[in-house]
Specification:
Residues 18-297 form the ABC transporter domain. One of its GO terms (biological process) is L-isoleucine import across plasma membrane. This protein is an alpha/beta fold. It has helices at 11-14, 56-63, 84-93, 113-118, 137-143, 146-152, 158-161, 164-183, 199-211, 229-246, 257-263, 281-285, 288-295, 302-316, and strands at 16-27, 30-41, 45-49, 71-77, 105-107, 122-124, 217-221, 249-253, 266-271, 274-279. It folds into three domains: 1-121 and 215-285, P-loop containing nucleotide triphosphate hydrolases (Rossmann fold); 131-213, no CATH class; 287-320, no CATH class. The strands form two sheets. It has a six-stranded mixed beta sheet with strand order 6-7-8-3-9-10, sandwiched between helices. It is globular, with a radius of gyration of 21 Å. The structure holds adenosine-5'-triphosphate.
Length: 320
């Protein structure tokens, strides 16, 4: 489903769930992310793309609290987006959430990774799969719900004693795990060690594990990497279902253009840590700067690429 522009604007402009504002990440003398600003629309599937080393994973690591950005602001809004004045006030008083966590507005750059996932409800998967390979498929999903189970135990021995509050929380956690195993088509493998699953199934299990934490924003780092064409199609279906049935906003890094162009509402393109394009898949696909970046040509050649696209467009009679 493409984003439907509303009165000439896009969902990411009118109802952003995440605003990345002037983000910088420096590693010594290397500027991995350079003054990056973009928005993620609520309920959108947003793709962050770019050539190798463009800074995509670094952006994810900043959003999910694995890195403290060198500069910049990352505003996540569960409900309405805050006004600039409200954000300025939170920044001034040194808080990490607007008038307390119940407001649903979080400044992610101030939060450690466990709070980004536990309080702000941002979940992620990794470029290199990070499952507990010696645990069963089901156990991997139960571990993902550890926080809820600990809260239900009152951080006491209720769990050991099997007291009612804890038992019902345990039942709910198992039901949720079962639901997601069915969704990702792994229910038949529930008792197998996660490490025994084929690669594509491990990728699906990672997504199921992330969904067990009930995220409002799901960040996926190259979910289609290593998948065959049939598995890529299944991934597209799964991500669309997550968005449609759970309203989860999705931000993904992806090199597989068949996935990006097929399912994204919004595409943001990075090159050398800088944003070079931002728009609908159709607009980005035809952006000469994007084509030049992927072809590895320098700035001077962008005009040549643009001229070549125009010539091709006229020859085939298509319009961009
Ligand atoms: N912890 C780090 N220390 C030093 N340099 C880093 C660190 N993490 C990333 N970089 C550098 O930052 C730049 C961006 O890396 P990043 O992994 O974010 O790119 P990417 O777009 O995700 O690349 P790929 O598509 O290959 O995964 C690279 O030059 C990388 O070497």
């Amino acid at each position: 489903m493409a984003t439907s522009p509303e009165n000439g604007t896009h969902r990411w402009d009118v109802d952003p769930i995440l605003s990345v504002e002037h983000l910088f990440m420096r590693f010594g003398g290397l500027i991995a992310v350079n003054d990056l600003s973009f928005k993620v629309g609520r309920g959108d599937i947003t793709a962050l793309i770019g050539p190798n080393g463009a800074g995509k994973t670094t952006v994810f690591n900043c959003i999910t609290g694995f890195y403290k950005p060198s500069e910049g602001r990352l505003v996540l809004a569960h409900g309405r987006a805050p006004t600039p004045d409200e954000v300025a006030e939170v920044t001034r008083v040194g808080e990490r959430a607007l008038a307390g966590p119940q407001s649903g507005v979080y400044l992610l750059e101030r939060m450690p990774d466990y709070a980004v996932s536990g309080q702000a409800k941002v979940a992620r998967t990794f470029q290199n799969i990070r499952l507990f390979t010696g645990m069963t498929v089901l156990e991997n999903l139960m571990v993902a719900q550890h926080n809820a189970l600990m809260a239900a135990s009152g951080f006491s021995i209720k769990g050991l004693l099997g007291l009612p509050g804890w038992a019902s929380a345990q039942r709910a956690a198992t039901e949720k795990a079962t639901y997601w195993l069915e969704k990702v088509n792994l229910i038949d493998r529930a008792d197998d060690p996660a490490g025994d699953l084929p690669y594509g199934a491990q990728r699906r299990l990672e997504i199921a594990r992330a969904m067990c934490s009930d995220p409002i924003l799901l960040c996926l780092d190259e979910p289609a990497a290593g998948l065959n064409p049939r598995e890529s199609l299944e991934l597209n279906t799964l991500l669309r279902a997550i968005r449609a049935e759970h309203g989860t906003s999705i931000l993904l890094i992806e090199h597989d253009m068949s996935v990006v162009m097929e399912i994204s509402d919004h595409v943001v393109v990075l090159d050398y840590g800088t944003k070079i394009s931002d728009g609908t898949p159709e607009a980005v696909k035809n952006d000469p700067r994007v084509i030049a970046a992927y072809l590895g040509v320098d700035e001077d050649a962008v005009e040549e690429v643009e001229a070549a696209i125009n010539a091709d467009t006229h020859a085939t009679g298509t319009s961009s």
